[in-house]
Fold this sequence. Notes:
Blueprint: H1 8-27, H2 34-60
Helix pairs in contact: 1-2
Amino acid sequence: MPYEPGSPQCRVLINCKSQIESMLLSLERIENSTPIREQLRSVHLQLEELHGLYRKSEAGGSAQPAPEPMGS
């Protein structure tokens, strides 16, 4: 059974991670793209950590993490 996100925030995070994965696959065909791919992997990891916070808060029934201010 596929994973079904439990909140709109989780759906957004899953979608963003999927888009980055697609970008990584495409960039593998581009010479000298290693620095960009490393940055994308870092962003993917950050999204995964944020998604983990939302999953944990949903499982525990607690409030969802507060959004970070723009520009930080």
